[in-house]
Design a protein that fits this description.
By secondary structure, the chain is mainly alpha-helical. It has six helices and no strands. The protein has one domain.
């Protein structure tokens, strides 16, 4: 699906892109990145289509999605590690000296 078709579905679903991203707990930046590729992944396209279809049938799709208590994924890995506090750094240095 093209990004333009995706945006049309969001209009049909009566939801903005930021609110859509927040509802499904996906980074708005990630959704905006599809604009450059001009292609939306199948899963995102299916969600948008379902939201648009439910909205046209006067079905409230937002509340059941909120009830799922979805969690945003956090970035993990060496490049995304949180900075250690000064006390943790000194503890690490001391423990490595003992080895």
């Amino acid at each position: 699906m093209t990004f333009i078709d995706f945006k049309k579905l969001l209009l049909d679903a009566e939801i903005t892109l930021p609110k859509f991203a927040n509802l499904i707990k996906v980074s708005e930046k990630n959704i905006q990145a599809y604009k450059k590729k001009n292609e939306v992944p199948n899963t995102i396209a299916v969600i948008a289509k379902c939201f648009a279809h439910m909205n046209s049938a006067d079905i409230n799709y937002k509340e059941p999605i909120k009830e799922l208590n979805l969690k945003k994924k956090t970035k993990e890995g060496a490049g995304f590690s949180k900075k250690k506090s000064k006390s943790n750094k000194s503890e690490d240095k001391n423990s490595s000296k003992k080895d």
